[in-house]
Amino acid sequence: MTSRRPAILVSVVGVVAVALYAAMAAVQILVLNPLAAVPGRTLLEIRAGMSDAGERIDVGMVLGILAVGVVIALVVAGLMIAARTPAVATAMPFLVVLVLGAPAYFFASFGPGMGLADAYGISGADYSPWAWPLYGVSVAAFVTFVVLAVMSARTAPRTGVALLPAQG
């Protein structure tokens, strides 16, 4: 019987990484981007201006969209630990969740960005540069996923252990 220790360690790191990604995305959408989009005003002044224009940032919607990734990561962690999955195989679904963080960020930020755009006559794009690290993490997760998948496929014939089924 194999140990659960690798799956536990990788799962903890995976859940923490996904939760940090979601937290940074929330701070970017709810705080950093509005402050960068409307310089010289406080967050309360920005929200008041949006309210005067009939717009608002739906905090619940933003947090709800971002929480989906954290819930998925927790479910994956439970499944991987219960199955005593090897470390590399445990890492793969967490990497996928981090890759999907970029589209989740886009969907979560779309409404708030459009609300800012409509209220202040600006574009709905990101004004804060702090979205770029999120995109960078997603790209790095994708590259890591591909590298691990290729390495696993190449080592499978020698070790008899594969993350992906061997092509024959």
What does the model show?
- It is a single chain.
- With 168 residues, this protein is mainly alpha-helical.
- It has one domain (5-159).
- Helices cover 77% and strands 0% of the residues.
- The chain has 6 helices and no strands.
- The chain has helices spanning 5-37, 43-52, 59-82, 87-99, 101-120, 131-159.
- Helix 1 runs parallel beside helix 5 (101-120).
- The longest helix is centred in the N-terminal third of the chain and has 33 residues, at 5-37.
- The two termini are 29 Å apart.
- The model is unreliable at 164-168 (pLDDT under 50).
Mean pLDDT: 92
**Tally of DSSP helical segments:** 6
Based on DSSP secondary structure assignment, what is the total number of beta strands?
Answer: 0
- Summing up helix and strand content along with how strands pair, one would put the structural category as mainly alpha
Order of helices and strands: HHHHHH
Question: How far apart lie the N and C ends?
Answer: 29 Å
Tally of domains: 1
User: What proportion of the residues form beta strands (DSSP E)?
Assistant: under 5%
